[in-house]
Amino acid sequence: MIQMSSNRIRTTGRVLIVVGCYLALEIVTAFAGKVSAQQPSKSIADFPKFEVVSVRVNEGYHGPVPLRLKWTPDGYIAEGMPLSWIIGAAYGTRVGLVTKAPTWTNSTRFDIIAKVAPSDVKRLSQLSFGERNSMLRQVLNERFHVSAHTEARMSPIYELLVRKGGSKLVASAPSVLSSSKSSKVMALSSDRLTAQNAPISDLASALWTVLGRKVVDKTGMSGLYSFTLRWVPEEEYITGNGSQDPNSDIFTALKEQLGLEIKPSTGPIDFLVVDHADMPTAN
Fold first, then answer.
1. Domain match, 132 and 211 both
2. Cβ proximity of 161 and 218 under 8 Å
């Protein structure tokens, strides 16, 4: 489940979450990327087919953020979305890692409505996110003639490590995890990250969103954790307008509040290279 407010986007379940509406796509790609980048367990021929696919250029929306991008019980809806963002979602790739796409894929916005037949709604509900995204990739191929491939490039990254002196996090007790009220939540806003029963790998994914650079979990910490991390946003830290400790940028906050630290490094990152894309064929 995803819940959105004016300044916070929240997901429940095993998840990733993101800050502010302008990063809404990261929810789709960072969460789905854990599964959709993998090969689906079944052949695309075994999946239900979209009975109706409508693709239109959205001429009336000129705001700074997308309106909608989600799977529905009977299909898929994208509203006011640049094609590059839809490609990223379909391939489980963060939008910043989609490269070589034609410039119009970033500027022209589209509305896409794809629905399966009523008799296939149950079959659709049984598919994983990766399998559903295979269906979306097929739509992109048929209507936009999209073709793409992944390419690993050595790039600057961060490594998330346990600070000397040890982590300050305490793993959730089995009794808590077995409770019927237990849930896994991570919510990220501009100045804090709140986690409930979340793995450290999800913390690394959220930090990637905040820092704009891939963060690799090198802590070796297993288990699930509940915590709140607070920091001064970069713009407030630079101007000195932060209401908190002026030394509490996110790097300092990680050390002092969680007993973790981030070190710069270099490592492979999978970029999605768009080989071809055309304006959509007619409905």
1. no
2. yes
